Amino acid sequence: MDEVQVVVAHAERATLRVGDVFLKVDADQARTEVEVEAMALAPVPTPEILWRRPPVLAIAAVRGTVLGRLGRPSTTPSSAWAAAGAAIRMLHDAPSPPWPGRAGRSIDAWTAELDSECEWLVTTGVLPAELVTRNRRVAEAALRPWTPAFTHGDLQIAHVFVDGDEVTGIIDWSEAGGGDAVYDLATLTLGHEEHLHDVLAGYGADVDLDVIRAWWSMRSLLAIRWLIEHGFDPFMPGCEVDVLRSRR
């Protein structure tokens, strides 16, 4: 029997790898339903679904290597980042799913969550008030009307696989749905600002850089409590707290 590798595990879900098979265990089957449906609709490479027996979804490993990791320098060439941008544009140009994804929440919902998390960060002393206030101000640029697009909703660089300058697969679609296209672009480049222009060159459309920067601040402010409570460290070099410190 192949060794069982724990890819990620926390209170909400876990992913195990056995050989070339990934087993995703999720207590919320609604997320799995979204993932299966989104992969069927997405016009970009996605993993092959091998079988599903709730609460487990089995998918095949994707060829290639991840585009990068948050907190680590990326050794992937600029051409691969541009290829990722082109794949994202293909996704965003496809008909939007009939359900809202993570990137499709209302301005009021984002604002309420942002206010709550900023208050928690300051009152608990996790971050200095000045740092939170500055990034809260930057994040406001993301709170504007947008046209729904087919969004992945959790497009971390570790969810994009490449082989050379070819995108071989995009994984983890449980947050997919209609939403703000810029959210995906910001998620992909979070902590890797040096590759933003490579991504946008492949994307091939004008994008407001202030909105991308706003989403960098927004995502980081909203993620810190969850990361701490689930055993992750947002203070590691190059991760969320460093992203906030880099904003002016």
Automatic annotation (TrEMBL):
Domain annotation Aminoglycoside phosphotransferase: ranges: 39-204
Pfam families the UniProt entry points to: APH (PF01636)
Record keywords: Kinase, Transferase
One MF annotation (Gene Ontology) recorded for this entry: kinase activity
Keyword check for Kinase: yes
PANTHER family membership: AMINOGLYCOSIDE PHOSPHOTRANSFERASE DOMAIN-CONTAINING PROTEIN-RELATED, AMINOGLYCOSIDE PHOSPHOTRANSFERASE-RELATED-RELATED
Protein name per Swiss-Prot or TrEMBL: Aminoglycoside phosphotransferase (APT) family kinase protein
Source organism of this protein record: Jiangella mangrovi
